[in-house]
Amino acid sequence: MKIPRQLAAILLCAVCVFPFSHASAQEKVDLDAITKIRYEGFRNSKIMELASELMDQIGERLTGSPNMKRANEWTRDKLTELGLVNAHLEPWSPFGRGWANEYVNVRMVSPDITPLLAYAKAWTPGTSGPVRGQVVRVNIRLTPDMARDMEKYRGKLTGKIVLFGEDPEIKPSVEPLSERYTDKSLADIEQYEIPGERNIDRFRQFQRRAALQRQLNKFFDDEKVLAVIDHSRGAVGGGTVFVQSGGSYKDGQTVGTPQLTMAQEHWDRIARIVAEKKNVELELNVKNNFYDDAMTQWDTIAEIPGTDKKDEIVMLGAHLDSWHTGTGATDNGAGTVVMMEAVRILKSLGLKPRRTIRIALWSGEEEGLLGSQWYVAHHFGSRPAYTDPERKGDPTVIRRDAGPVTTKPEQAKVSVYFNVDNGTGKLRGVYMQENAAVQPIFEAWMKPFNDLGMDTLTMRNTGGTDHLSFDAVGIPGFQFIQDPLEYETRTHHSNMDLYDRLQPEDLKQAAVIVASFVYMAAQRDQMFPRKPIEKELPPLPRAEDEENAPSPVTHPAAADRPQQPKPTQENPPPQQQRPPQH
Prior knowledge:
By secondary structure, the chain is α/β, with parallel strands linked by helices. Helix content is 31%, strand content 19%.
């Protein structure tokens, strides 16, 4: 029988699309709701208003600082204003000492008079007024034989300003500082990388570096130096200064010497003059404030109540805290306002989710996912507490070496957690965290957003942010793939992490997709499929007991992840290193 040409074309088309249609045929997609969400998110967006209130009017949000508490209270009140219920600040502890910088002025007074671009490092003291001192170049590497290097300088640094570290490598900016993922780079991300044996040394590396850092800080304290100045990381330069911490936030571990990070070009000018055996004198005036009432910190929580499945929860979140030299715009004010805009969209449309939707805005992420770990431990599941006095009081949710997970009844009620925390770029897909069962779900949900560039899934894990706290206790937790833009090259933990670096159209796209994913998760007949909880690992020995120390890593939160686009850091060395990237 001859088949008509039009019918043949229809049959051929059906055959071609059958694999995808079959994979996602069971997954319901509410296109009517998505249409409304897209319209509200693109035509009536409030996301940049939220961003300006948070970044411009509140500013930096270092955990433990007064601004962090202001941000907590603002998000609570704003979520209430948007119509959410049960908006509150949920406490967690212990944290440690609060800290904030009030004033920095650094200038060369000899052989030239000129202002210099430098920033105080978090959790280091100020100068108690203007001080002047001669610059001395010091280069001590954090290695097991560091004590030998320190002896070369012992007794020679009192009253001096230490120019610390190796020479920076400053190159012309020939490569673009901002980029989007190409088809090739997304195809590379799609390819799963089979993990090798767990690098059990990763956490030892952090422990060893932290111990060496404490020794070096004590050396500078004992030498009674006026200040330690290192230079910004990377080869960007041009006024971008990447700054984090110089001391620990933990009570009893505060350093006694002011520490600053300087723009590479200004640091290098001083280093060249010193190398010519010429005297350089600097004047510093740094005012930093410590707060001893910061042991308790808070996460912001609010909800959209569910209907027939109201006892089950769909969560979305981002970290609200930041570092202190910018205003935390791309890290992670962007994620915060995306999530706030997502719930605003759902409330403004009057959609009635079946499950309760709960938004959480975390503090303490930059110090090791502290806020989300404590929330998960309190509500969903925990691991045994550390007995090691060096780690006593630290949360253990993401530390598999701490012991097995004990889940709480509420853990079974959480269907899924979505997180945004890789800058201001548009969403391009999802890291599935090795959970193959979610692939047909996400394939179906992404299809209405293919026209916005949302079309990539990968089985890869990604780390360094708060979805790990949920993943660790068996709750499906996902971070989105995002265009990198300037995240690593200019804004991540830098003085340039400001409102102007936010990309409004990308943020609108992200908020629309998040709102849709959250709503569809709340409407599903079934909970999200789960993968097994990872088994515990043997306890790691203390680094102080080892004879050989590996090279340093950024933070213990990084110690159990093969891919980590988002580093965290509690107590970096004076000479900062470029953090890992995808």
